[in-house]
Amino acid sequence: MGAAKTSFMVNKTPPRAHNRDINLKIDDTRIRQVKTQKYLGIMLDSRLLFESHATYINRKARTILMALRTKAVRHWHIDNVKSLLTIYKGAILPILSYASRVWIHRMSYVKINRQFLSTQGVFCRILTRAYQSVSTDAALVLAGLAPIDLELERINCHRELKQGRNAMFQGEVITGNTFLHPAHLDEYLRLKMEDIWQERWDQSEKGRTTYEFIPTVTAACPLLDRPLSTQKTQVVTGHGNFGAHLLRIGKDDTGHCPTCDVLDNPQHRILVCPLFAETRIRIRQTLRTWPPDLKQILTITDNSVFEQLTVTHPD
After folding, report:
1. pTM, two decimal places
2. Which of 223, 250, 269 is at the close of a domain?
3. Which of 59, 230, 250, 279 is the most exposed place for a label (fewest CB within 10 A)?
4. Is the pLDDT of residue 17 over 70?
5. What is the per-residue pLDDT for 198?
6. Quick one: 57 and 166 in the same domain?
7. Strand, helix or coil for residue 274
8. Residue 29 and residue 176: Cα distance in Å, rounded?
9. Quick one: pLDDT at residue 14?
């Protein structure tokens, strides 16, 4: 055992104690004291707060996400929803959920939870072709992926039950004999996740434009059946070539429509603005109703409609 490669860490020091005078040596060489150590793939800190572990695995997950996405596009020539979801479920989730039984209780802390949600938000924006300015709340709903803290708790619940132990999900004790079949457990956890997620989405102050188009959440990942184009995502999120968005990022002074002198956003262009009268006719013909229910806008498959809605000055 070499002193140069050896270190030590004091775990959970009592409040009134200090460890400044600890002096460990190997062959008269002092061993350095560290605040974090990696053990079996887990970053341990002296107070077992797992903040360093959250930083480590989220950085690792982002690096692998970008590397695999680049590999898929450049070498395998695939860049679609199915391939991205395969990367997410086969690589990203296993990294983020590794040894979650040890630290899952720390997900209730805002600082740690934000790191995981930030990583998931990066993936969801890639998946939905959204601007980086789109909030994580909106990106999750658009992608149809449940918030990562709920997803990790679900994964951990399954692992515990497979090992013959009782599990906790959002404060509820789930035992091995609670459900007759694993499929019943899956459905129950999915419904409970969606209920909690829906409450968060209703109360969120972010992504309110997206909320008007998608007020109800689903963890069924609808993108497999209804892929999003860049233009459709811009309309549903309001992050694109709209006056309201340009005002937010400092590229417009008023954010108003040049014709109507009111806030220029997707809802205005779809429902009122005379500059988009032709597009409005096409929407009416497609949906066969007027005024349209904004929740039905996503069902329009003709992408040229969304291309027209995202231009500055339609012909």
Report:
1. 0.89
2. 223
3. 250
4. no
5. 98
6. yes
7. helix
8. 53
9. 64
Q: What is the pLDDT of residue 313?
A: 61
- Selected residue with higher pLDDT from 61 and 79: 61
Q: Where are the alpha helices (DSSP H) in the chain?
A: 51-74, 81-87, 93-96, 100-103, 110-128, 136-143, 148-162, 182-203, 208-213, 230-237, 243-248, 266-271, 277-287, 303-309
Q: How many residues does the chain have?
A: 315
219 and 167 together in one domain:
yes
Say yes or no to pLDDT of 19 above 80.
no
Together in a domain, 10 and 150 = no
Residues 102 and 208 in one domain: yes
Q: Does residue 58 form part of some domain? A: yes
- Give the number of domains in the chain: 3
pLDDT of residue 93: 96
pLDDT at 18: 63
Q: 282: left (phi > 0), else alpha (psi -120 to 50), else beta?
A: alpha
Q: Are residues 110 and 144 both part of a single domain?
A: yes
Asked whether residue 72 is assigned to any structural domain, the reply reads yes
Amino acid, single-letter form, for residue 67 = A
110-128 and 51-74 helices, crossing angle to 10°: 10
Contacts of 84 (CB under 8 A, 6+ apart): 69, 72, 123, 126, 127
Q: Is residue 41 part of a domain?
A: no
Burial of 102 (0-12, 13-18, 19+ CB in 10 A): middle
- Using DSSP, state whether 70 is helix, strand or coil: helix
Cβ pair 151, 93 in contact under 8 A? yes
Q: What is the pLDDT of residue 216?
A: 96
Do 70 and 196 lie in one domain? The reply is yes
Please give the Cα distance from 123 to 145 (Å, whole number): 10
88-116 per-position pLDDT tens digit: 999 999 999 999 999 999 999 999 999 99
